Amino acid sequence: QVQLVESGGGLVQAGDSLRLSCAASGGTFSRYRTVGWFRQAPGKEREFVAAWSGGTAYYTDSVKGRFTISRDNAKNTVYLQMNSLKPDDTAAYYCAARAGYCSGYGCRLRNDYPDWGQGTQVTVSS
Question: What are phi and psi of 55, to 5 degrees?
């Protein structure tokens, strides 16, 4: 069974950058046509951040222009490059994957992602 493992979180200051990684162990990312990143702040619901499906990247409005999702099948890894971080970006970040493609709003539905990692914490201080 494929396990997704996130890494790269940490404590940074506003304006800094971080790159999150999501590695697939026990299998390959190639079986997943869609990979995504979600985040959950304390007391809030888990929300969509970004997804990569069929060569197209999708982002929630609050991270457009600051975050970039990418995947490297050769390394079995998906990345989320986060630049110009803000305190509002503070959350636990989760990698998720699904076998099928998605597009537009369909990529935002967390219940459509059956496979999840355990999360990595990102804290941005002001």
Answer: 85, 5
Amino acid symbol at 56: T
Note whether 121 and 58 are within 8 A (CB).
no
- Quick one: pLDDT at residue 28? 80
CA distances from 14 to 27, 40, 65, 126 (A): 36, 18, 16, 5
Contact 48, 57 (CB under 8 A): no
Mark residue 99 as left, alpha or beta (left: phi above 0; alpha: psi -120 to 50; beta: remaining).
Answer: alpha
What is the radius of gyration, based on Cα positions, of the chain?
13
Cβ-defined contacts of 42-50 (< 8 Å, 24+)? 44/91, 46/94, 46/110, 48/107, 48/108, 48/109, 48/110, 49/80, 49/93, 50/80
Pairing of strands 56-59, 47-53: antiparallel
Tens of pLDDT, residue by residue over 19-62, are: 999 999 888 888 899 999 999 999 999 999 999 999 999 999 99
- The token pair at 75 is 């390394």
The alpha carbon dihedral of 22, 121, 8, 50 has a sign of positive
